[in-house]
Amino acid sequence: MAEPELGQLASRLRSFLIGHVCATGGHLGPNLGAVELTLALHRVFDSPRDSLVFDTGHQAYVHKLLTGRSGEFGTLRQAGGLSGYPSRRESVHDLVENSHASTALSYADGLAKARALNGEQDRAVVAVIGDGALTGGMAWEALNNLGGAPQRPVIVVLNDNGRSYAPTTGALAAHLAALRQDAGAAVCRNLFTDLGFTYFGPVDGHDTEGIEEALRRARALCRPVVVHVVTVKGKGYGPAEQDVADCLHAVGTVDPATGRPAPIRSNGARSWTSVFGQALAEVAAERADVVAITAAMLRPTGLHPMQQRFPERVFDVGIAEQHAVTSAAGLAMGGFHPVVAIYATFLNRAVDQVLMDVALHRLPVTFVLDRAGITGPDGPSHHGMWDLSLLSAVPGLRIAAPRDPARLRTLLRAAIDMQDGPTLLRLPKAAAGPDIEALARIDGLDILHRSTRRPLDVLLVAVGPMAEAALAAAALLETQGFGVTVVDPRWVIPVNAALPALIARHRLAVTIEDNSRTGGAGSAIAQACRDARVDTPVTVLGLPRAFIPHGPRKALLAQAGLDAAGITRAVRELIADPAAGFPSERPALSHPARRP
Ligand SMILES: Cc1ncc(C[n+]2csc(CCOP(=O)(O)OP(=O)(O)O)c2C)c(N)n1
Ligand SMILES: CC(=O)[C@@H](O)[C@H](O)COP(=O)(O)O
Ligand SMILES: [Mg+2]
């Protein structure tokens, strides 16, 4: 295809991306920056015979368009529609579905070893990694292996646009900037050549033919090669190129003319993230020892209000969650109280650091996990549904789940006031609803609802934002003749010692959490009841032990039975099922607990 035709194709791809992604939402900036790069990849390599691995995968839309999925692009990130990331179910051209950054080079290392063992080294292994993802530790573990095996060819395409969301931080970013500025010096010696790679670059990331030439040369070398491609995030679309915040990294439905959401009548609802960000800035104004850490997601985790007021006390460590946690441990050892703001799903990779670098030393670090629970359009590797399961076993870690903005503010302060060990708050990806005031607060338990003049049939234990669905279910169950109590423990791990006694007063207890039901808060509560010899059957409602696909958050919660209808249905089924242990009579008061 001659250059003018290539240019026309790139232009058509850009127009397609802008039109579709503005309509469906998705990763606009990253994909506009990867148009020519992806064209070149598919012109030089023969996917799927050759393997193309995209790190994080949010920049793989053009790859999808070039592998036969343009017709379905109107379904992007919608239930049953195209995933916003590579998907093995969708195509043989797609390899890695995990949207957690910094993994591509490790996959490539494994693929290259497989090629060598199979005698298939003519099948290329190509990994595309962004400059942001390259700040993640796994990437350097992989580079160490790849560069140490000259006999195993892997082509690392570094898509360098100088940004993660914000400009990429740290010494690596400075090194790449130097390479971009001084091509002559770059070719002679740099980080990659020192690690055993041949280095080609910097290559203009919007010159398809130039990229192709570099890729062909890299392929011909049959050894580890880094092709340093310099791109512009949001290339070719003014609103993205000019967006100083994050080059329209990820957008909802926006006006293609402006890249901005259509003006909507605001119902005043704020996101949990913004409530947290403002509350933290207020605490930071009162407490000079409070510092904050982000892993390249300052704005998405709501730290910018604090960063604007106290820039010297907010640290962006790059896409390096494990380092973030242990660096926080160091800050705590130095006399500070770090608040580590991370999406719940991304903390999964730093469990050992929470356990052994923070909790073992009983350090006062507060973790604030945004996007806990079902997140929606980003699919299985983005739902924050394992934090309670992974962290409930951490000795000394206290975990709270605020049900509303008022409790978020209160619990954040309480967590930061705790100096004898780590604390953790988890927040959903949702608009923060109205405050839900308790009827009473007994032994640290918020009684949100209790039926009057009815037996104590069912106790609903709501974890955080599940309080709303629990209260709606209580209303439904009352219309069906049941007496219902709804309780919010606020601090879910360790289990409040008064909770088993409250459960003992009811004929049935149901815990409700937007975490996996395996090993989460409900499991801990059921265990606490067994330990306390409480006879009341405890049923745990939560997310299934499965990878949940992308789709609207509310619909996915309903499918998991975590809405009012699902909770009501579960209670009625339990009561109807003789094997469920629902006693015909209320249990004798083996625990003279105080009345709720
Ligand atoms: C472990 C992990 N932490 C954070 C994120 C959130 N995240 C998604 S894309 C992105 C920035 C990636 O920057 P880069 O690799 O340079 O790709 P670009 O968007 O610039 O093309 C981040 C931080 C993630 N996907 N995985
Ligand atoms: C690819 C990635 O990990 C993020 O960009 C993710 O899309 C963030 O999603 P939200 O911030 O919209 O929840
Ligand atoms: Mg980048």
Automatic annotation (TrEMBL):
Q: Which cofactor does it need?
A: Mg(2+); thiamine diphosphate
Q: Which UniProt keywords apply?
A: Isoprene biosynthesis, Magnesium, Metal-binding, Thiamine biosynthesis, Thiamine pyrophosphate, Transferase
| Residue ranges constituting the Transketolase-like pyrimidine-binding domain according to the UniProt record | 270-435
Quote any Pfam family the record assigns.
Transket_pyr
Gene3D superfamilies this protein is in?
3.40.50.920, 3.40.50.970
**Enzyme class, UniProt record, top EC level:** transferase
InterPro entries assigned: Dxylulose-5-P_synthase (IPR005477), THDP-binding (IPR029061), Transketo_C/PFOR_II (IPR009014), Transketolase-like_Pyr-bd (IPR005475), Transketolase_BS (IPR020826), Transketolase_C (IPR033248)
Task: Kindly state the subunit structure of this protein.
Answer: Homodimer.
The entry sums up its family as follows:
Belongs to the transketolase family. DXPS subfamily.
Q: By what name is this protein known?
A: 1-deoxy-D-xylulose-5-phosphate synthase
> Gene encoding it?
dxs_3
